[in-house]
Design goal:
CATH topology of the largest domain: Rossmann fold
Number of strands: 5
CATH class of the largest domain: Alpha Beta
Largest sheet: 5 strands, parallel
Radius of gyration: 18 Å
Number of helices: 9
CATH architecture of the largest domain: 3-Layer(aba) Sandwich
Length: about 220
């Protein structure tokens, strides 16, 4: 089953690329949204989180209190691993179900899985093509400060907690350079959309590693 992975560090512009692909007829499944779905009230994953981290991470409405949970795991690698051990298998199972449904219902439509932490995990070989949205760490830190209002220390911490730029490039079959203007990133994403539609599903290896801007 062909699936294209779309990944990139925080503030690299992955959402810009995903939105552009969606606008050109590509189906994009967002791993972050799947992760929210699998911890809905009544889910086994939410029950597992409550068992490990306590009911204080569950809000009065029965939903996961993400802020409270984040405080518990952000600076504690062992706790973060416990959380990942609960959530990641549930996310992957739900995602595979959605992949299978897409294959049955729309086999001729390219499928992209937007997954932020691909380089940090062990599933890179599950995908037929890996697209990395790439911007240097210092540019991404500046975006977090300017566009999301973070302090410099927090921005540096968020970027540093993820895989390095080199580690992401090492898994890339295709690189979108998002270090420039927004319009440049969107142009490369349009080119990628055209190539996916052209080569899906059998000749994805023909897509070049470095994308030229679209002709639009």
């Amino acid at each position: 089953m062909p699936v294209v992975a779309l990944t990139g560090g925080i503030a690299a512009g992955k959402s810009v690329v995903a939105d552009t692909l969606s606008g050109h007829g590509i189906v994009v499944i967002d791993a972050d949204q799947v992760a929210r779905d699998v911890v809905e009230p009544g889910s086994p994953a939410l029950a597992g989180i409550a068992e490990v981290f306590g009911t204080q991470v569950i809000g009065a409405d029965g939903r996961l209190d993400r802020a409270a949970l984040g405080e518990r795991v952000f600076s504690d690698p062992a706790a973060r691993q416990q959380l990942n051990d609960i959530v990641h298998p549930a996310v992957w199972q739900r995602s595979q179900e959605r992949f299978d449904n897409h294959l049955r219902e729309h086999p001729k439509v390219p499928l992209v899985y937007a997954i932020p932490l691909l380089a940090e995990g062990s599933r890179v070989n599950e995908f037929d093509l890996v697209v990395v949205v790439d911007a240097p760490a210092q540019i991404r830190e500046a975006r977090l400060v300017q566009e999301r209002g973070m302090g410099q220390a927090e921005a540096s911490s968020r970027v540093g907690a993820q895989a390095s730029d080199e580690e992401r490039r090492a898994i890339a079959d295709v690189v979108i350079d998002s270090s420039g203007e927004l319009s440049d990133t969107q142009a490369q994403a349009r080119t990628l959309a055209a190539l996916l539609l052209e080569h899906w599903p059998g000749t994805l290896s023909a897509i070049p590693r470095q994308l030229p801007p679209s002709a639009e």
